[in-house]
Specification:
By secondary structure, the chain is of the alpha/beta class. 33% of the residues lie in helices and 19% in strands.
Length: 337
């Protein structure tokens, strides 16, 4: 146990998410949208709060009504908001999403002059990383200054105060001027990271050096195709000094990779998919919950898989994260850990 006042600080993007109410309709034929809170760090903080943890979010928001919408949601969810700066001259970001199961989820970001990209080292100092049991960083927070330097400083502070660091690789190709820049920047941070979490595509992107290895078919509809040797990419990340790499594999669950070369597959929980976006954040929520409980990597991944399985059956992300009793009932119904 610990006497620290908070379990988790999540750092990075936040947004209002406008999700299609016309599930299955092509984007061009959507007639209405539901409004939800979103952004990977916001989703994870909300998820941990619903599981009974004390979570805080460090993100930037504008002096606008979208920020009012998000802050009201977070306060109702019990997420600490006092470290969130309202940054004059910026705008709180937005995301618009179509839902066409099982594999088309068109996604449009509105992040020009984005408030969370304007976070500074001073905002990190105000949050006092030492008062948290764990720090979680979103990879998109590394794409621009001053947010990038502030993220590196947050991780330095975490290491200095023996606070474990979780890095969600969070590769969003349209948020980088060059996909290779994602890998260069992420590799610079990884030696100070405790555990990294990402999909196979994100793992390959982290080690990407040749632009000919990536093909972007459609900027807003599908993830880029990244060619490479996944085993070599995993090994390359592990050589940077992290404790473990967790690879999310969708309906196949996850796999745990350790620096000694050990790899363990962790099965998922089969469900019918409505919306895959948010599943990765739900996985991180469940994994971090288990980690903070002192569970081993396998059991923590099973909890992550369970969270992800629940969220993919629902409409959105943060608003649909499972609660503690609901999650454990689901796991028990599916045969336990």
């Amino acid at each position: 146990m610990t006497d620290k006042p908070y379990d988790l600080l999540t750092y990075g993007r936040s947004s209002i998410d406008l999700y299609s109410n016309d599930i299955g309709a092509p984007f061009e034929e959507i007639t209405s949208f539901g409004s939800f809170a979103g952004g990977s760090p916001l989703n994870i903080a909300t998820g941990l709060s619903r599981l009974g943890g004390k979570a805080a979010l460090l993100t930037g928001m504008g002096e606008d009504k979208v920020a009012d919408f998000l802050l009201r949601f977070l306060e109702k969810e019990g997420v600490e908001t006092k470290f969130i700066p309202r940054i004059a001259g910026t705008r709180t970001s937005a995301v618009v999403l179509g839902i066409e199961p099982p594999d088309r989820f068109p996604l449009v970001y509105y992040r020009d002059n984005c408030a969370d990209s304007a976070m500074t080292i001073d905002h990190v100092i105000a949050a006092n990383v030492s008062q948290f049991r764990c720090l979680e960083i979103s990879g998109t927070a590394l794409n621009k200054e001053p947010c990038r330097s502030a993220a590196f400083f947050a991780v330095e502070e975490a290491v200095r105060n023996a606070v474990p660091v979780m890095l969600d690789l969070d590769f969003r190709h349209d948020q980088w001027h060059d996909p290779r820049a994602f890998g260069i920047t992420t590799r610079a941070l990884l030696p100070r990271v405790t555990i990294a979490i990402g999909t196979e595509e994100e793992v390959l992107a982290t080690m990407l050096t040749d632009p000919n290895q990536i093909t972007i078919k459609h900027q807003q509809i599908s993830a880029p195709e990244i060619r490479g040797n996944i085993d070599e990419a995993i090994a390359g990340i592990l050589q940077l000094g992290i404790e473990a790499l967790i690879v999310k594999r969708g309906s196949d669950g996850a796999s745990i990779h350790l620096p000694d070369g050990t790899a363990t597959d962790v099965p998922g929980f089969p469900v019918d998919i409505v919306n895959v976006l948010g599943a990765g954040d739900a996985f991180a929520t469940g994994f971090i919950y288990g980690y903070l409980q002192g569970w081993d990597h396998y059991k923590s991944c099973r909890m992550g898989n369970a969270c992800g399985a629940i969220v993919v059956t629902r409409h959105g992300c943060a608003n649909f994260m499972p609660y503690h009793d609901e999650l454990f009932a689901f796991v028990e119904e599916k045969g336990g850990f």
